[in-house]
């Protein structure tokens, strides 16, 4: 994950230094999304980052939508139809809790430079977010090819839409170009990897430790030491206070439904020191806490309201390695970082 975190950090530094005093957004790439009737839903995701000001936040508007900056960009833009087919996704991504995931996905769809089709085909292009994008000669798009050892091959995630002549549909912009695609890309699945349901058919037996809190359970497991270290850096209140809290009185029974899916040291091996940097803290915090929530039938309601499906011995893309339940909830150690949009895109 080093490349990904470096990219996020660079984006933060860019705006600490300051961008243009007045944005010239005429026909720039985000303006093209806003004005193209088939791409407005994707623009609204950018716009939602502006917290109601009517424009995307400066990290998007000033960096990617200002002709004064003098840089060109290529956007792979999912159509309105592509976004509409993922029911409820927009609502979750545009919550305050979902913001780090939203910005990660948005920057994945932005490539540096004004790229012609021959610049894209059969080449690996690194997105602004730091993930690798590959488009084959048919227009099939994959992410992070060959990067992470995974039980399941992710395959094609989206396709370039083409005109009647078989050419990619290109919408020109003053500072780049926009290509239409038929689906939202999920770089997290190919970055974190996926454990096969076939290889992990059942959950491990629960170890009951009624004298321990979730905080105690987490602290006692040497295989989650990296997660603890990162949490105490980017969200110290979570391991120190939240994992030590419990419901009482009439709500005492709710303790048994609280679950924290904590990534193992192996799952977090790419979360280096750079992950702790201020510019990366939001993303690190989201991924570490994506699996904290409440058990509800065969799923866990995780961060930002995402349903984390339990199937066989997995939750979403991750094998469950160990389960231990204490006085205020259960800690499940998992072998991958959770991809909250797994199976949705």
From TrEMBL:
Domain FAS1: 26-185
InterPro entries tied to this protein: Adhesion/Biosynth-related, FAS1_domain
Protein name as annotated: FAS1 domain-containing protein
Record keywords, A-Z: Signal
Organism: Fusarium oxysporum f. sp. rapae
Cleavable signal peptide: 1-21
């Amino acid at each position: 994950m080093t490349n990904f975190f470096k990219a996020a950090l660079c984006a933060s530094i860019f705006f600490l230094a300051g961008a243009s005093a007045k944005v010239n957004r005429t026909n720039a790439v985000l303006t093209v999304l806003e004005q193209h009737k088939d791409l407005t839903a994707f623009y609204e995701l950018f716009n939602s980052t502006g917290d109601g000001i009517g424009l995307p936040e400066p990290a998007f508007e000033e960096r990617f939508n200002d002709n004064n900056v003098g840089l060109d960009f290529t956007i792979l833009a999912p159509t309105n139809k592509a976004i509409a087919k993922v029911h409820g996704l927009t609502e979750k991504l545009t919550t305050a809790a979902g913001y780090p995931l939203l910005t990660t996905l948005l920057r994945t769809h932005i490539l540096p430079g004004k790229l012609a089709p021959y610049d894209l085909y059969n080449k690996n292009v690194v997105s602004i977010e730091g993930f690798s994008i590959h488009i084959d000669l048919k227009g099939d798009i994959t992410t992070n090819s060959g990067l992470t050892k995974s039980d399941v091959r992710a395959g094609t995630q989206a396709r370039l839409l083409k005109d009647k002549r078989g050419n990619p549909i290109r919408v020109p912009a003053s500072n780049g170009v926009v290509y239409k695609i038929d689906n939202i890309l999920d770089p997290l699945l190919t970055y974190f990897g996926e454990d096969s349901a076939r290889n992990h058919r059942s959950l491990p037996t629960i170890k009951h430790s009624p004298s321990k809190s979730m905080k105690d359970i987490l602290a006692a497991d040497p295989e989650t030491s990296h997660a603890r270290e990162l949490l105490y850096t980017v969200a110290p209140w979570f391991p120190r206070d939240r994992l030590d809290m419990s419901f009482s009185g009439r709500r005492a029974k709710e303790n048994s439904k609280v679950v924290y899916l904590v990534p193992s040291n192996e799952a977090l091996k790419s979360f280096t020191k750079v992950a702790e940097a201020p510019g990366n803290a939001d993303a690190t915090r989201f991924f570490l806490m994506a699996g904290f929530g409440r058990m509800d039938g065969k799923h866990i309601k995780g961060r930002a309201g995402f349903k984390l499906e339990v199937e066989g011995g997995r939750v979403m893309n991750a094998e469950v390695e160990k389960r231990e339940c204490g006085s205020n909830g259960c800690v499940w150690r998992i072998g991958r970082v959770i991809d909250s949009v797994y199976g949705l895109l």
